[in-house]
Automatic annotation (TrEMBL):
Ranges annotated as spanning the membrane: none
Coiled-coil regions, chain positions: 42-90, 175-202
Keywords: Coiled coil, Hydrolase, Protease, Signal, Thiol protease
GO molecular function annotations of the record: cysteine-type peptidase activity; metalloendopeptidase activity
Lineage, top ranks: Bacteria, Bacillati, Actinomycetota, Actinomycetes, Propionibacteriales
All copies of domain NlpC/P60, residue ranges: 293-415
Family as reported in the entry's similarity comment: Belongs to the peptidase C40 family.
Gene Ontology terms: biological process: proteolysis
Protein name per UniProt: Murein DD-endopeptidase MepM/ murein hydrolase activator NlpD
Residues in the signal sequence: 1-27
Pfam families named in the record: Peptidase_M23 (PF01551), VanY (PF02557)
Organism: Kribbella solani
Superkingdom, taxonomy of origin: Bacteria
Length: 711
């Protein structure tokens, strides 16, 4: 009850704050050179969702690290136990061999003694050799044969028996040591097992406490997004009002194309000393007012008319819009954009980032990933875009992975503009989304600093005014200046020297994955250099915006910073659409599919279409046992079925894009299963390779939402 009261009070306080501040001017990630930071109070509220997401990711990363440590210890214990048993078996065999050799020597010695043949062995050795034969002197055979054997083999047999005895004792000692090691490893695994159980309980409690807060924070974030949309519109309307007071009618785009041939009364608009094509300026009462073309103004107006409309994959309106659909509608009828972002890039003149103006088309992506997103530029480092992560057409910050700015009013480029080739992973980063999961592959993956040289510092997601984004975008590792910094996995280097980082190494690992290493005291690599996992790339320092020696380490997917800890813990990570943590998706972001089951909304829509087709074939709806699985539920399942369940925080059930089916589909080669194999792809659902018959883990019942056919 007390917890519920605290949440209620928090919600009321934040709601009151929203009412008081009305429509504050703010941005998620303002650039100091282009906009003013938002009021601190608004920043705190806006970051509450991000902070909760970061906290959830940290809990998951900690549990992943603990689980991996336990799994490794368990494997070590199993290997140690196997080694101990093998050593004990070898020692037993060796003991038997030594006993046999000693018995043979005893027989020979007994024969020699009975036959009166002189022996080279002393009395002590003779007694030792006779011990295993005792009263079995009947084994002595033919006298003449014994005399012959004794003459040539007695000493050799004595040496053989002694060597066998020595080897037996050595192997016995080795077996004892390995048994002790096995017992120690088993004890360590047992202790770590208890720690994992406790960590699981802590994680479950922590996530349970966050769940309601996350829903509240998500609702507040939506309110703040609406406020941001309205503020941007108000600023745009203020500009249009200012332009009206100049009594300048916005000219056609063709008139403003060449800044050296502008109509009388208009002057070039300059940015950093260079004239901007496609735009002009006019001086009024000592002020310089930007004059945009009629076509660009219309494009921005049309873009604003779409703000708030729901997002839909590849949708072109009028009710839903995909990212390209929103940009296309904005610029119609002046021009019709191609049907792929990569095809947009070659058709329109690119302009320098310093000259971006409202109405420009902003394309996001990278050389290693391809182009994945498009928006319509505004001032203040913002743009209007259909954003899958936010589920709507929104005003948002221009992301870090801005590839180019295009100005449709300038026409085709004078020089060919070749887009980067799209990779198979490009779809995962579409329209402002972050990949639901990312596997860095089976290659080497290591920590950026050697073991024992660092501490765990400021975590990802911590809020504060010292960061331009308002929150910490990486993981800090305090360490002594000069400590070697290593590439976590292979990639291509880019060296930069931004003010905040001093010396920065960025490594592009391909397919949208990038790592950053900041504040270095020394850089040991060069631009374009190929590096491998564990290779030294520099040394820890305190350059740039730093409060002391440390490594600031970042992982970025498609240009978006994500929590590095799951990557470091597992060598792969699930990062989540909308920035949410796996198993921590707010209820308001999920859609019902019946029977209390929930999925991500696009997956839910496709599922309902698929179950309709299935019903037409079999007369009943799809039988489903599991869909979205909270992190708490994942932990519970993992505790009960560790060999079957995915590591908590990595399951696609935790993203709301996986289902477990029954009713015949849960068995291979049934009519129901074969129907799914033949038709599920038409609705964007697939049976993953690992779940196929004969695969790593046979699960005919498990199906995942993949790439929609319409995308």
């Amino acid at each position: 009850m007390e917890l519920g009261r605290r949440r209620g009070l928090r919600f009321a306080a934040l709601g009151t704050l929203l009412a008081v501040i009305g429509l504050p001017a703010y941005a998620d990630d303002p650039s100091p050179s282009t906009s003013q930071p938002p009021p601190a109070s608004v920043t705190d509220v806006n970051r509450s969702l991000e902070q909760l997401q970061a906290e959830a990711a940290a809990v998951q990363a900690d549990f992943a690290k603990a689980t991996i440590a336990y799994t490794k210890a368990l494997k070590d214990a199993q290997a140690a136990e196997a080694a101990a048993k093998k050593a004990e078996s070898t020692a037993t065999t060796s003991r038997g061999k030594a006993d046999e050799e000693r018995r043979r020597l005893g027989v020979l010695t007994a024969q020699a003694y009975q036959l009166g043949i002189p022996t080279v062995m002393g009395t002590e050795s003779m007694l030792w050799s006779l011990a295993p034969v005792a009263e079995n002197l009947q084994e002595i055979a033919d006298r003449q044969t014994a005399i012959t054997q004794l003459g040539s083999t007695q000493v050799a047999q004595y040496r053989t028996a002694m060597a066998a005895e020595s080897e037996s004792n050595r192997l016995k000692g080795e077996a004892a040591a390995k048994r002790a090691a096995a017992n120690q490893a088993a004890a360590k695994a047992q202790e770590l097992s208890k720690q994992v159980q406790q960590q699981a309980a802590d994680a479950t409690a922590s996530m349970a406490n966050q769940a309601a807060d996350l829903d509240v924070a998500s609702a507040l974030s939506q309110q703040l997004q609406k406020a941001r949309n309205q503020q941007a519109l108000s600023r745009w309307q203020a500009y249009l009002t200012e332009l009206t007071t100049t009594k300048i009618t916005p000219p056609a785009a063709a008139v403003l194309k060449d800044p050296n041939k502008l109509p009388a009364g208009l002057a070039p608009l300059t940015r950093r000393g260079a004239a901007v094509p496609g735009v002009a300026s006019v001086a009024v009462a000592g002020r310089t007012v930007r004059v945009m073309s009629a076509e660009a103004i219309r494009a921005v107006n049309q873009a604003f008319s779409l703000v708030g409309k729901p997002y839909g994959v590849a949708a072109t309106g009028p009710d839903k819009y995909g990212c390209l659909g929103a940009a296309r509608v904005a610029w119609e009828p002046y021009t019709t954009l191609p049907n792929l972002v990569s095809k947009v890039y070659p058709d329109y003149q690119a302009v320098p980032n310093a000259q971006i103006e409202p109405g420009d088309l902003l394309v996001m992506g990278s050389k290693s990933l391809g182009l994945v997103h498009i928006g319509v530029a505004l001032d203040n480092g913002e743009m209007i875009a259909a954003d899958e992560a936010k589920g709507a057409v929104v005003v948002t910050t221009v992301p870090d992975n801005l590839y180019a700015a295009l100005r449709p009013t300038l026409g085709a480029p004078a020089k060919p503009q070749v887009p980067p080739a799209a990779t198979s992973d490009a779809y995962a980063f579409r329209c402002g989304n972050t990949a639901t999961s990312y596997d860095v592959g089976t290659g080497a993956w290591t920590w950026p600093l050697p073991d024992g040289t660092y501490e765990i510092g400021t975590p990802f997601g911590q809020s504060g005014s010292m960061w331009s984004t308002g929150f910490h975008t990486g993981q800090d590792f305090p360490a002594a200046i000069g400590t070697p910094v290593r590439a976590v996995t292979s990639g291509v280097v880019r060296v930069e020297h931004p003010g905040w980082a001093g010396n920065l190494v960025r490594i592009d690992h391909g397919n949208g994955l990038e790592t950053l290493y900041a504040h270095l005291s020394r850089v040991d690599v060069t631009d374009g250099q190929q590096v491998t996992a564990g290779q030294q790339i520099g040394a820890v320092g305190s350059e740039g915006n730093s409060t002391g020696p440390h490594l600031h380490f970042e992982v970025r997917l498609g240009g978006d910073p994500v929590n590095p800890m799951p990557f470091l813990a597992t060598g792969s990570a699930s990062t989540g659409w909308g920035g949410y943590s796996n198993g921590m998706i707010p209820a308001g972001k999920l859609c019902a599919i019946g029977g209390g089951q929930m999925l991500r909304c696009d997956a839910a829509a496709a599922y309902l279409q698929m179950t309709g087709a299935y019903r037409a074939q079999f007369g009943k709806s799809l039988c489903i046992t599991d869909s979205y699985r909270s992190y708490t539920a994942q932990v519970d399942l993992y505790q009960r079925k560790p060999s079957l369940a995915a590591l908590p925080g990595t399951s696609n059930h935790g993203w709301g894009v996986a289902v477990d089916l029954c009713g015949g589909i849960d068995k291979y080669n049934t009519p129901q299963y074969l129907w799914m194999k033949a038709h599920a792809g038409n609705y964007g659902w697939l049976h993953p390779g690992w779940a196929e018959q004969g695969g790593n883990r046979e699960e005919p019942w498990h199906w995942e939402f993949g790439k929609p056919p319409s995308a």
